[in-house]
Amino acid sequence: MTRMPRPSPHELGDEPPWLEDPQDWFWCSSCEHGLYWDERYHGELLRCVNQQCFAAEFAVPIWAAQKNRDDLFDEAANPEGWPRPVMESRPVPYLVPVTAGRPWWRATDGERLLRCQNQWWCQVCGLPLPSAAWVLVDAGGDVSSDAAMHERCLRLAAGTCPHLLDVGVGYRAVQVRLDDLLGDGRPLQLGDAWTPKRWTLRDASGGIG
Out of the domains of life, which is the source (predicted)? Predict the structure, then answer.
């Protein structure tokens, strides 16, 4: 089945139409039937409408549904590189999936995150990092978005992301090397992860407030 690209949601109104009914925008990569929102995770996870499909019991994250669109006809709207593309008046980080010109600001592309973790790439621009890079950590040492950044990308994110601009979040910028980080509580090593790991700082006391 060949599906044609739909009009940009900017032409259809302020709210992306897939927030109400995603079936004309996202479909199952196994049986090509439409996908619908999981009732417990509306706007985050999708399920196949075809109950006979073996994939119907598995929820699909939005980034994976978008990847299916990319593989068929969508052009890469958010490639790696610098400067970052601007959508809805904000620069779009490399980890944010994009559908027909609309970023999923609260979603993370799991495949890209894994790539950044395994290859020491920047979460904002998607380019290789120097040996010393930057992370944002909370009071407990948890790393924001579980990936590192260039200094310029840190400044961009800190100055434009509403979540990071919230004074109540309390993140600190910390310059780190690979040895300064833990992945799922173990020493971090490049190229050894099959799924994204939860990053934490070995020593949560350092950093720049």
Answer: Bacteria
Instruction: Count up the domains in the chain and report the number.
Output: 2
Give SS3 for 158. Answer: helix
A 10 A CB-CB count for 166 gives 10
Distance CA 118, CA 110 (A): 12
Residue 201: strand pairing partners: 181
What's the Cα-to-Cα distance from 154 to each of 65, 129, 150, rounded to whole Å? 28, 12, 6
Q: Which of 74, 91, 121 is the last residue of a domain?
A: 74
- Give the whole-angstrom CA distance, residue 146 versus residue 123: 9
The residue to which tokens 């959508």 are assigned: 87
C-alpha to C-alpha distance for 36 and 12, rounded to whole angstroms: 20
Q: Domain of 147?
A: 113-201
Find tokens 């196994």 and name the residue. Answer: 30
How confident is the model over 76-98, as pLDDT tens digits?
A: 779 999 999 999 999 999 999 99
Residue pLDDT, tens place only, 172-199: 999 999 999 999 999 999 998 899 999 9
